[in-house]
Here is the input.
Amino acid sequence: MSEGNLGVEFDAAVGAKLGQARRILNRCNRVAAFSGAGLSAESGLPTFRDSEPDALWSRYDPMELASVSGFEANPVRVIDWYNWRRANYAGVQPNAAHRALAAQSRMIQITQNVDDLLERAGVPRQQVYHLHGSILRDRCQNSACEYNERIDPASPQPLRSCPHCGAHMRPAVVWFGENLPQAIWDRAQGLCLALDCLLVIGTSATVYPAAGLIELARQCGSRVIVVNPDPRAAADGGDVYLAGSAAAVLPALLEGFDLASHS
Here is the structure.
C-alpha cells in the first residue's frame, strides 16, 4: 500500500492493517488517544524504555533522578538533569503525528508525555490530559504549598527556593511513587468508560496506573488500535496492531477521518 501524498510507503501487511483500522474508526463516534514517549520520538526527544542506547532509563537510574528520595539525596543533580532535558525540549518541534492528532479537533488526548508538543501542534490545552504533569513548569516540593510557575526551557533556572515557603522548587512532573493528579486522572477514567475506540500510540504500556486506562477502555467495550514500532506492543491485545512510528502511521490512519462528523 502506498500513501504517495504523504511520502510514506507501507508494505502489504501494514497496508491491510491500516485498512482494517480505518474501518474501525469510521464506525466510531467516541475516539480518544492515549500516548507515550514514542509520539514525540521523531521530534528528537528520547524515549525511556526502548532498547535503543539513547533511551533515558538505559543510561540513568530512574530512582536517582525521578523520585522524591533521589531529589532529597541530591537536588542539584536532579535539577541539572531536568534542565538538560528542558534544553532539548526548547529546540524541538511537533512532528507529523502531533499534527495528525491536532487535526482531529474533537479528539481528547490522554498522554503520559510531559512536553507540550500536542498543544504546539494545535490541540486545545483543555483537550490534553497530562497524566504525568509538565516539564515546562516548576512547583514547590512542599505538599502544603501550592506555588507553581512556568519556566523557559531555553534558560531554565538552577536549584532555587520557593518564594512563598522557602522549600526547594522542583519540576511539576509525577515521579515514581507519587500519585497522578487526581482531577486529570478522574477525567481520563471517565472518558475511557464511554469510548468506542482508543488509539494507543508509542507507549510501552508498562507504567501504572496510567496504562490501566487501556484495559479499562477495553472492558467497557472500546476497540483498541495500537501504533508502535516495537512488536512487543502487539502483546497488549489491541484489536489492530500497526507496526511503525507514530509520525509515519498516524497521518495515514487519520487521513480523511473527521471525528467531528461522527458526533
About this structure: The CA atoms of residues 66 and 183 lie 22 Å apart. The first helix runs from residue 12 to 26.
